[in-house]
Amino acid sequence: MLLNLIYLLLSLAFMGCDGSKESPVSFNSPTGGRDKFTKELHADWDLQKIVSLDSVRNWPAGKKMFVRTAFAGAELEDFEVKFVTVVEDGLPTMPLVMLEASDPRLIALGGVAQGMSGSPVFTEEGTVGALSYGFDLQGAPPFYFMATPIQGMIDGVFSIGNPSLKSVAVKIKKLVPLSIPIAVTGTSAKALKYFSAIAQKHTGNGQSFLLESGSASSGEFNQSFEAGGPLATGLVVGPEVKAAALGTITYMNGNQIFGFGHPFLWLGPQSLPIVDAYVIAEISNLFAAFKFFSLGENIRGELTADRLPGVGGVLGQIPNMLPVTVTVDIPNFGIKTFKHSVARGLPAGFETELSAMSVFIPVLNRNDDVANKYSFRVDTKITTDFSDIEIKNSRLYSAYDSPASEVLFGAIDEYFSSHGRLLTNPYQKLQIKDVTVSVKMVDSLLIGMITKIHSDTSVFAGDVLKVGVNLRVNRTEDREVEFNVAIPDTFPVGIYSINVGPKREVRWFMEFNGMSDPVSNALLPDTSMSDMSMDEFLKDVNAEDEKTILGVAVSFVSSPVPDKRDLDTTKFAGLDSLSVRPDSVGLPPNLLGMPDMGITIPDNMVLYQSTGLVLQGSRTMQFRVKSKTE
Fold first, then answer.
1. Which of 371, 382, 340, 366 lies closest to 440 in space, CA to CA?
2. pTM of the model
3. Residue 289 clears pLDDT 80, i.e. is over it
4. For residue 394, which phi and psi values (nearest 5 degrees)?
5. Torsion angle of the four alpha carbons 574, 579, 582, 585, in this order, in degrees rounded to the nearest 10
């Protein structure tokens, strides 16, 4: 499988740290060998021991300390730092330990690498804390940063007594958490750019959670979990798409794991997967150094807490994840099914973004991306923990002069809308139970441009008016769709308008003119969720694909046209009751200066036909209803 390495926008570097002593801790490499440090200065130091904050307070400034992390070549390394002081009011509920970088390697990089959050800070006496905070926009040495005390992490990560995000105000100016890179494998930078743009459109705060991304590849290996090793919080796990946030393990207590030293998403109790990760190298960058790492498919444990002092979890536990299945049917590729798992309990916009990626990236990875060639049929089923609340619909996407990927982005946009609205509905708190999508790529365009309508220019009340609609299909052939419109014998004599277009436009026209639509009884386009009940929302999102349904609606225009001798002196001047008006494209007749006589059009004057084409355009013409006594 061809795998494109993803590197999007990196957040700014926050601080620096340094040192280069090494330990004999070993772990399994992807090649199956056992790697050891080249230097073993701290082989006998016991990081399971905890150094109390009272002890740290008594240390002299300049005391040598070390930071351990997985860095170059996937080896755990120890970097020297210097103790500065204990900042007593660093956070609302705990002090922070202030450190200064002293190793020339990291000083040369200009900051701590993204992905080092949680790296244990220690001395020969034991573990002091977790590398966690830095000062924004440090441009030159000395580089300072902060560590969260290890005792505060152990006592507070799994506690529900920590303050919420809104109550936390770091008192030190420009002090920020170290960046946690979110990396995605299995797709292209172009695709992620579109996903981010769509996510920003649909989230209430205009945010995409992928805007600050790291870089990763994909591989098969088994990670050994120990202090200083990578801690990857899985977001999407599967054969093609993988996404994870990377930090560092601070401390292990049996199967209990602590890391990051600061919140990830600040979600409190949580159920996120811990997945295998392998740090390949630390990459220098103009904005910020970052860890380049590989992600595996194995779920190794569950992250159960995400709070102020850091994150915590348990190895061996399996989290409850959202199953996402997509079946892809593409010419010259065949039919293949991909099964991914998406983390639950995330902010609604984030879960929607990750779910959409799991569905559509396997499709984006397998098309020629040429214009004027492909259409897509997308069948979607999204179930919830309520049996009567589900999304089930079928949609067709096709467009002129657009690459296949841009055509598919229309489907992604609609998926974002329906999935996101379901999660954020104001009526019923629910959980998505399962997502199943089928995407069929059709090796042709399926577009019908409405070019003309024609019918008799007059009809007797009680007769049938035959209406023909001409479609230009794919700019290569013509097709005609016929409607038989029964004119009730109760219709008054007068001028009427025939309005033809895609169903959604016809419904808009009807609403504008105070008409009802008994055939679909659906809501108007762009009705917001706050204006709908849950039943109305489900009816709207599960409705037929309105852009493929041709609609015809008849509306009353005016009473009989005066005698032609009076045309120059009446408000109907210039109106020919027998004329066809194709130029009044989609305009309600009342906008043409014609009076509304208060006549109600019967419900059977609205007709629909499915075409199997994405319809474009609309047309209007007029006809006259005559009395049989004429």
1. 366
2. 0.79
3. no
4. -135, 135
5. 50
